[in-house]
Amino acid sequence: MQSTLERIEREFDTALASAGTDSKAVDQVRVRYLGRKGEITALMKQLRELPGDQRKQAGQAVNRLKQAVQARLETALEAAATARQETILATEQSDLTLPAMQSWRGSLHPVTQTRRELESVFRNLGFTIEDGPEVEDDFHNFQALNMPPDHPARDATDTFYLEDGNVLRTHTSPVQIRTMETRKPPIKMVCPGRVYRRDLDATHLPMFHQLEALVVGETVTMADLKGTLEALWGGFYGSEIRMRLRPGYFPFVEPGCEYDISCRVCDGAGCRVCKQSGWIELGGAGMVHPAVFEAVDIDPARYSGFAFGLGIDRIAMMRHGIDDLRLLLENDVRFLGQFPGVS
Amino acid sequence: MDVSLNWLRELCPFEASPQVAASALTSRGLTVDSVTAVGGDTRFEIDIPANRPDCLGHRGLARELSAALGVPLAADVQPVKAGGAEVASAIDVRIDDPDLCGRYTARIVREVRVEPSPAWVVERLQVCGIRSINNVVDTSNLVMLETGNPIHFFDLPTVADGQIVVRRAGVKEILTTLDGQERRLDEEMLVIADGRRGIALAGVMGGAETEIGEQTRVVLIEAAWFLPNSIRRTTRRTGLSTDASHRFERGVDPEGVRAAQDMAVRLLVELAGGVADKSWVDVYPAASEPRHLELRAGEIRRLLGYSPSTAESLEALSALGLQPSGGPDSIEVTIPSWRVDLEREADLVEEVARHLAYDRIPTSLAGLPVVESASVQRDRGELARDLLSTQGFHEAYGYAMIEAGEDDRFVEAGLNPPTALTHPIVETMAVLRRSILPGLLRATDFNQRHGTRDVRLFEVGRVFHPGGAKFPAEPLRVGIVWSGRSRPAHWGESDRDVQWFDLIGLVETTLDGIAPGYRPLRETGGLPAHHPGLAVHWSAAGVPVAWAGALHPELQAELPYPVWLAEIDLDRLPGSTSEVPQYSPLPKLGAVERDIAVVLPLGSVWHDVHEALLAVPAPAPVRIDAIDRYEGKPLPTGSSAVTVRVRLQPDQSSLTDDKIEAYRLKLLACLTGPLGLKIRGEAP
Q1: Which residue among B368, B446, B488 sits closest to A104, beta carbon to beta carbon?
Q2: What is the DSSP letter of B391?
Q3: Assigned CATH for B291-360
């Protein structure tokens, strides 16, 4: 018996040694000795046939061998696992500095990005955002804005007339009218949108984008207009800017004005951007004309309000340093891809 | 308007430099766009607002400078003594339409010699951007440029019967104007006629037959006031706009008519050696009393947000010639005849604010009301922009105007023709688009021809669908174009151009992003511009909500690279719900999957197969997906073998193999039975 055990142990060690760090070969060795039909398993079965006094002694000897074999197998398996990890680490490498697989990068139009920036400043100031149709009638686009038929101020807006008798809105002001028609004061709104004028040259496109603000309440003054403009542009540019109002004429406001902000490039000292004036002209503004209130059944003696407008395209061009207006509507992906913002 | 600084100084003798004068005018709302030295003079280019016709003459601008600089105006030049005879009957003036002509004056100057003007006249006109013609024509321009009141000269002997009739034109009346154009008039236009025929288009341009010529010796001076709206209508209908009509349509000073006539007489005497008749004709049916307005201190404060002192308000108003009286709470003013723009109290508030400078207005936010935010719902257009830009598409901006016929193949059958513009600026912008896609296709063409093969663009915008109503419907739509590769090139994957499933997947992802859980039915067939075999539409309750597919080969033939395009009507999608999604417990048991390969012949509809399979009673909650597709031999062309994965997710107790197998056999029976399909790799 003893010699059998010694032989088995020798043969096991030889087999295990030749299996090396191959975990599959090690497992085959395990099966050969400890599997259901393994040699050591067979020895365990033979024990039952031995007489009682020999059985105990032989049993202890077989068990010792089994435990020794198990321990060596475990060690061998661990060595195999370690060797496998080392092989993986040694072989699985790549040049990770090469370009990776990308998704397509999209973009929002620079005018959309600027509009959203402006809207977020207005939202923070508690304004609502309103929308209206692009095809308008004469009443909403002109008459309610104190521009009766044959009013000379209609000259300034070269209008696209439609065969159905309507017009393509020449400004977003009709949205102010529609809002005042359906909602009673207080009103604090902005309306961004596309507007149309019959004009096409290097500095004019027949379609462009405006944003207008309207505030109506019982205590609204021109001082509040000035304060709101300061809050808007301070918020938009995130810096200290100065405001300037100059008298200006728009039929739907009285008193009317144009507003400038201090040039951010030279801080008012005068530079190329502001044409040496120190100021950047941004748009028209004023107190809502009493005739406009009358057109929408708001009592001008009880309520007052201000309105102002701006051109989103121009702000976007200044923001991104775009020097050719036409690029905005050409939809060249080489241009659009330069503004990768998507929010 | 081009203005002479020397002229302004004659009318208001101020010492201030050109720059100071220019900035004074600008800060009062008369923006000086440029200051240029011209000879010994300086030219101001001034943008005169439409409501200030009084400033369309040097006199009005001098009044503003006088108020701004505190320098009184120079005394008026005395009218020249008329040397001629008392000939009251030499001309007879009749106004037939006093609603359109409020005042008409006529005066005769005889013994005129038409000659070149002296140098000072030539130079002055040149500063104002007008070429000198001769001493008589130049006189009329000098009068207009100084007073703002246009005047007209007739060669008196050519005026038949010495008679002037101001009347509406007859139907189809024809008049040849000074510029040699034969103009067809209508009864809305006002003409100046003599005893026989029209001799001038009132307030716009004189007639050729009564024009001043080199032989003219006797001049009839017309100085008049015409109804602004009438002149404006005439210029619009004739397309003829002149320096005179520009002023008349804004409203000239009816009281200034006499001063204009006086100045014309003076210059004709001075420059052309004329002798003026002592008398003149003045028909003034519209003569009216001066208007008065009240200005309350409270109104100034209510609009401006600050209170000037009463003295300041009074000073501002009197500087502008408004003759204020009263105070402190209420000031009464008399509106000068030349200030046609001052109609309401608010106008006076502006006059005070302007004079005291807008810089006086304080800065505040105290008067702003607080409003409730009307809606918290995210705008669908904004959502679509976010979804598509994050999926790699560039936002495009397209014109609402397209060429007539350009969108015919991009709209559903039965849609009304587009709304046309009456006067398009170019033929490629003649009608309002009914689809976003023609513009995007144009942009794709532009990009492909500029060497960009990978074009991924979208636009969110309104389209215009005329219906029976006053306004066209303006549904908000998203258009998408895609050409080139489906993914950026990389060695990790072979390059592949965009396929139908890329585009359709993009549309469905977008639909789900805008209206989560909304799954409209997808069916074969797109828009007429789509390839009929490679296009689909989605619809809900029979109403299409989106279209997608390859460009029709006929249109594709004109483009370098294959184009796929889709459009979604955002207004037809269901509104997003305000419901907060509720949690359901996560499964504790493992899921079971079985795959079935089924052959779908040409013309079969996956949606129907999917619905039929889902209708088979399942032993546990089930999800059925098509996970793979094979086309090619031995399958007939158009057929595909689709691998259907069935995933059972038990929630109560685990499933036995028997139950799963029984369910699988029922699915097979459904496919082969009612649907009549073949199963691959399965014993019959």
Answers
A1: B488
A2: T
A3: 3.30.56.10
A137–B471: do the CB atoms touch at under 8 Å?
yes
Which regions of chain B carry the CATH code 3.30.56.10? 2-69, 291-360
Taking a C-beta distance cutoff of 8 angstroms, is the pair A223, B362 a contact? yes
- Sign of the CA dihedral with B438 first, then B443, B446, and B451 last: negative
Integer Cα distance of B240 and A236 in angstroms:
45
CB contact (8 A) between residue A220 and residue B367: yes
Q: What's domain B380-572's architecture?
A: 2-Layer Sandwich (3.30)
Question: Over 70: is that where the pLDDT of A157 sits?
Answer: no
Question: How would DSSP label each residue in B462-524?
Answer: E--B--SSSS-B--EEEEEEEESBSS--BTTB---B--HHHHHHHHHHHHHHHSTT--PEEEE
Residues of B in contact with A151 (CB under 8 A): 50
A23-27, A136-140, B132-136, B567-571 — which is least confidently predicted? Answer: A23-27
Cβ distance B472 to B456 under 8 Å?
A: no
Chain B stretch 518-557, residues whose beta carbon is closer than 8 A to a beta carbon of chain A: none
Distance between CA atoms of residues A289 and B347, nearest Å: 9
How many Cβ atoms sit within 10 Å of the Cβ of residue B670?
16
Provide the β-strand partners of residue B474.
none
Q: Report, at the CATH architecture level, how domain B88-283 is classified.
A: 3-Layer(bba) Sandwich (3.50)
The CATH number that domain A110-336 falls under is 3.30.930.10
Buried b (16+ CB within 10 A) or exposed e, A186-208: bbbbbbbbbbbbbeeeeeebbbb
Q: B629 — contact with chain A (CB < 8 Å)?
A: no
Which residues lie below 8 Å from residue B464, measured CB to CB, with a gap of 6+? A134, A135, B400, B418, B419, B432, B433, B434, B472, B473, B474
**A327: nearest CA partner in chain B:** B397
- Quick: pLDDT tens for A2-22: 788 889 999 999 999 999 889
The predicted complex's ipTM stands at: 0.90
The pTM score is 0.88
Chain A within 8 Å of B584 (Cβ-Cβ)? no
* B592-679: CATH class: alpha beta
The C-alpha atoms of residue B203 and residue B232 are separated, in whole angstroms, by: 10
Q: What's the confidence (pLDDT) of residue B278? A: 87
What integer pLDDT is reported at residue B579 of this predicted model?
77
Q: Do residue A106 and residue B361 have CB atoms under 8 angstroms apart?
A: no
Q: Which two tokens stand for residue B295?
A: 């200005």
CA distance B5 to B62: 10
Question: B2-69 in CATH: which number?
Answer: 3.30.56.10
Q: Is the pLDDT of residue B324 over 80?
A: yes
Asked if the model's pLDDT at residue B81 lies above 70, the reply is: no
B31: contact with A, CB 8 A cutoff: yes
Q: What is the CA radius of gyration of chain A?
A: 43
What the block records as the tokens of B427 is: 């033929």
Residue count (chain A): 343
Q: How many residues does chain B have?
A: 684
DSSP states of A185-242 as a string? SPEEEEEEEEEE-S--BTTB-SEEEEEEEEEEESS--HHHHHHHHHHHHHHHHTS---
Q: Which of A254, A296, A255 is nearest to A139 (CA)?
A: A296
What residues in B contact A111, CB-CB < 8 Å?
397
Nearest residue to B297 via CA among B282, B279, B280, B312: B312
CA–CA separation, A209 and A329 (whole Å): 11
Tell me what percent of chain A is helix, strand and coil, each rounded to the nearest 5. Answer: 45, 20, 35
Higher-pLDDT residue of B632, B378: B632
pLDDT score at A4: 86
3-state secondary structure of B453: coil
Average pLDDT over residues B194-212: 94
Measured between its terminal Cα atoms, the distance across chain A in Å is 83
Size of the A and B interface in Cβ pairs below 8 Å: 274
